[in-house]
Amino acid sequence: xxxxxxxxxxxxxxxxxxxxxxxxxxxxxxxxxxxxxxxxxxxxxxxxxxxxxxxxxxxxxxxxxxxxxxxxxxxxxxxxxxxxxxxxxxxxxxxxxxxxxxxxxxxxxxxxxxxxxxxxxxxxxxxxxxxxxxxxxxxxxxxxxxxxxxxxxxxxxxxxxxxxxxxxxxxxxxxxxxxxxxxxxxxxxxxxxxxxxxxxxxxxxxxxxxxxxxxxxxxxxxxxxxxxxxxxxxxxxxxxxxxxxxxxxxxxxxxxxxxxxxxxxxxxxxxxxxxxxxxxxxxxxxxxxxxxxxxxxxxxxxxxxxxxxxxxxxxxxxxxxxxxxxxxxxxxxxxxxxxxxxxxxxxxxxxxxxxxxxxxxxxxxxxxxxxxxxxxxxxxxxxxxxxxxx
Length: 390
Known about the structure:
3 strands
């Protein structure tokens, strides 16, 4: 029986265990601090590879996408694309993010192969079982795994398409509303210019609302006035705050009811776009489906070396590596495109919308000045009584 004597030291946590028996007494010191350090080191080593893979993945997610040009499409369909894709494998975030599971299952297959080989060479006791099984269960369940992966990827791609369509409508509605505002003549110019600034700022504010790590102040400071930017930055929902600025600006313009109603109806497209984007962000693919696919993949590859042992022996190691790298890569692509907005070139879409609206303003002013000058020159060519001058 041991008697625990706690110490009075507050900085060092250990206990004295003093056995009470007929033998000479001794003190056994156990230092939980040392045990804790060992656990921390083991935990950090255990988490080092997954943390590194996750860091690579998150850097890739936050990387800005670009819109395709004619040169990009030409490279995309180039006959050398396969060689280019293979040579860039070590820089692919999808492949690098799969290092932890692929390494684990490959090492597990090597352990199973080593165990069976040692048992066949009588290096282990004979009562231990040889790990092998029939391949019939795999032949029956392989279609189920294929369907799970296909449905998972298709559902993720459908969300990607929904996000792309939502932003296409938002950019089109931005251009449409801006063109109607630009067409307004002989109205309050400061209010009109402010309204155009809010229209340009809306896609940027929504982009920052959807993308993690975006700096809304940096992106909006060159678009909005300082006082407007301060109000928007202090709001809980910045895209809706920009819409409120647009609505108040439209009310300040002295327009006919029909024209005002037309402009306000264009803003409803912005509310609809916000709803679709927030729905895609807040509601993922049903988690039960994601968990089922993940568990199926894990159990499949844990039993794969046992199933293939009779036919492959040590070849189960490269076979497991190829299978894990292929199937987990398909599942990883589905997970990545499930959140569509980091996969879209939202920064370039916002910049293109801003550039197009500014060009439309300049073109409208140029055309208006040209028509006014043409009208004046045309009026000078005629006499006051309507007959042309000689």
